[in-house]
Design a protein that fits this description.
By secondary structure, this protein is mainly beta. It contains 3 helices and 17 strands. The protein has helices at residues 4-10, 24-31, 145-159; strands spanning 40-44, 56-59, 80-81, 84-85, 88-92, 97-104, 107-121, 126-133, 136-144, 167-170, 175-180, 187-188, 193-199, 202-207, 212-217, 224-225, 230-234. It has a 9-stranded antiparallel beta sheet. Strands 10-17-15-12 form a 4-stranded antiparallel beta sheet. It has a 4-stranded antiparallel beta sheet with strand order 14-13-11-16, with no helix packed on it. The longest helix is centred in the middle third of the chain and has 15 residues, at 145-159.
Length: 235
């Protein structure tokens, strides 16, 4: 499945919203739906990204229960791209050379593909692969869809500025808590330090997105955290 994903990303030029004409509420509902544990999200990596390049979600067919990430799909099964079955097949001619076929009996488009080595971005929890299609080079970034949804949720919480209710601050990177600067009942100004997380041997300060009162601290010093974990609640 991971082999099909980059090439489909190259050929996708539509808007990022996978539900044309849907309102924001419908979009959020779709993004929060239960997703296949094997689903991946693919985006063009920053090195070759053009503004407006969409992210897509790719999952195996519902009946392909035995397909694991990275395995080729059985003949006759179509991957699900943003909720729609796509007629896509990747023929491998070695570890790097391949041919992508898109379409059905009414018309098939074929493109020669060169697949580069996989590189792991441990800080972001993503995999990056260089793909060359018809001579055009694109770097794509592959991430678990569930992890991507957790990261989005954490960013939405961190960006909230409203004083109308509690603000939950979630982890956007995995790591280990090395210091906590606040406790329940403390008041804090916007930009004040909440805690320090060590990731990839670097210490990252987490600061309050707005002023308020610390209602809850959800972690302890020395605790290992993952993307999406609740860190602090500010009221």
């Amino acid at each position: 499945m991971a082999d099909v994903t980059p090439q489909k990303m190259v050929r996708t030029n539509g808007p990022a919203d996978p539900i044309p004409g849907a309102g924001a509420g419908a979009f959020e509902a779709a993004r929060e739906r239960s997703v296949d544990v094997r689903a991946v999200r693919v985006t063009v990596a920053p090195t070759t990204r053009i503004e407006g390049d969409p992210a897509i979600t790719v999952e195996p067919p519902p009946d392909a229960a035995s397909v694991l990430p990275g395995d080729p799909l059985p003949a006759g099964d179509d991957p699900i791209v943003d909720g729609t079955a796509v007629h896509a097949r990747l023929e491998r001619f070695g570890p790097q050379r391949a041919r992508l076929s898109l379409g059905d009996a009414l018309g098939v488009t074929r493109a020669p593909i060169v697949l580069g080595e996989l590189r792991v971005d441990r800080a972001r929890g993503t995999t990056v692969r260089e793909v060359v299609v018809h001579g055009w080079r694109i770097d794509v970034e592959i991430e678990s869809e569930r992890r991507a949804l957790l990261r989005e949720r954490a960013r939405r919480g961190a960006g909230a500025q409203s004083h109308g209710g509690p603000l939950e601050v979630h982890a956007i990177i995995p790591g280990r808590v090395v210091a906590i600067s606040v406790k329940p009942g403390d008041t804090i100004d916007a930009g004040g330090q909440l805690l320090v997380v060590e990731a990839m041997k670097m210490q990252n300060e987490l600061r309050a997105p707005r002023e308020g009162t610390i209602e809850r601290v959800g972690v302890a010093v020395g605790q290992t955290i993952e993307v999406g974990d609740l860190l602090v609640v500010i009221t």
